[in-house]
Amino acid sequence: MIQIDALSKRYGGFTAVDNVTFNAEPGRVTGFLGPNGAGKSTTMRILVGLTDPTSGSAHLLGRHFSQLPNPGLEVGVLLDASAQHGGRTGREILTLAARTMGLPKTRVAETLERVSLTEEEAGRRVRNYSLGMRQRLGIATALIGEPEVLILDEPANGLDPAGIRWMRDLLRGFADDGGTVLLSSHLLHEIEVIADDIVVIGNGRIVAQGTKQELLAGGGTYARSNDLTALGRALQRAGHTAEITTEGAVLSDAELAAAGQIAFDAGLVLTELRAADGAGLEEMFLQLTASNQRDHLESPEGLDSSKGKAA
Ligand SMILES: Nc1ncnc2c1ncn2[C@@H]1O[C@H](COP(=O)(O)OP(=O)(O)OP(=O)(O)O)[C@@H](O)[C@H]1O
């Protein structure tokens, strides 16, 4: 179990993490999704005691990371796969990790096998590893102590599609055995493939969280018309959410028939009207990624464009 409570981190006048609260539960893979610079790594670094928070708290298994006597046996961490010593072989790195944690040497071969690194690859110097091999070695280092919790920052970086499937199966098995997994990514698709629960962060703040089913569920309407702003306002006046997407459509929580009727009553010509089908999360993520080009409805009435499942 990971508990993050009202966590904030400021660097001078800049707030990298802003009042972030979420849990990652045992038996679940929690995906921490956000564009570059959103605050994912900072949150994870605070979680493992590498950075001090400005305020708030982060607990693993009910304790601070610094209170864990032999952390590798309880929490497996992969923050930066390229931080390994390039002059050492994969096997040497795992052997050192095993020694530090007081584990039997046999664990090295077992773990290499678990991450599908061959004997020959384990004998190569890490500087000659591909990024994907480094990720596997990093995951091996995280797993070797058989921890209950895994914290992985962008672990799918450099993995090919087969590698991503391998990692999904590995993390699924880990969670099915009761483990807690928190992994970050800046790619929605990766998180969709791997995670059970999703926490979305943008500009240091949580913007949505829930189960994958909740966040990707359909519902709502995606509509285009000859006047997007007028359509958005008409929907909002009728009590629905409405947001102009980066692709030039209106995304609303109104059902199809209601949206059609509202457009008709407002005298607007619809050029497209269809179910949103999980477009909400994708659109929100696209907007976060291109947050400088956000195209909000201008709203003299202070109309809010927030969507149902967004926090
Ligand atoms: N030591 C630091 N001093 C000043 N600013 C920092 C420091 N560390 C991080 N930041 C800033 O905090 C913000 C969040 O960075 P962070 O690395 O947590 O983002 P991220 O979501 O992990 O992004 P990425 O996907 O690119 O790794 C960024 O704007 C970054 O420049």
TrEMBL record:
InterPro entries: AAA+_ATPase (IPR003593), ABC_transporter-like_ATP-bd (IPR003439), ABC_transporter-like_CS (IPR017871), P-loop_NTPase (IPR027417)
Signal peptide: none
Stretches for region Disordered: 292-311
Molecular function per GO: ATP binding; ATP hydrolysis activity
Pfam families attached to this UniProt entry: ABC_tran
Compositional bias ranges of the Basic and acidic residues kind: 293-311
Chain coiled-coil ranges: none
Keywords: ATP-binding, Nucleotide-binding, Transport
Keyword set includes Transmembrane helix: no
Boundaries of every ABC transporter domain copy: 2-228
PROSITE patterns with a match to the protein in the record: ABC_TRANSPORTER_1, ABC_TRANSPORTER_2
Alphabetical list of SMART domains matching this protein: AAA (SM00382)
Keyword Nucleotide-binding among record annotations: yes
Similarity comment: family membership: Belongs to the ABC transporter superfamily.
Protein name: ABC-2 type transport system ATP-binding protein
Species per Swiss-Prot/TrEMBL record: Nocardioides panzhihuensis
